[in-house]
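Hi, here's the filled form for the chain we discussed.

Project: internal
Contact: R.S.
Residues: 70
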Amino acid sequence: KLDIEARDPDGQIEKLDIYLNGKKLNTITRQPYQTEILPVAGNNLIRIVAFDNDGKTSEANEMLEVIMRP
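And the returned structure, exactly as it came back:
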């Protein structure tokens, strides 16, 4: 499970778009901002795009490395 913290100091968050390795996984429109992810072995890029009530966007990226052991 991925827990996301998002806030807008001068308005409100309308939605969050969640991507894993370039593929859109989910759109979240209300709190709590949580989603399930299934990363693969190796490097995984998580990208979150937040949209606020003024039409502005902000983006966060995080690399997650998954090591599979036999």
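Let me know if anything looks off before we file it.
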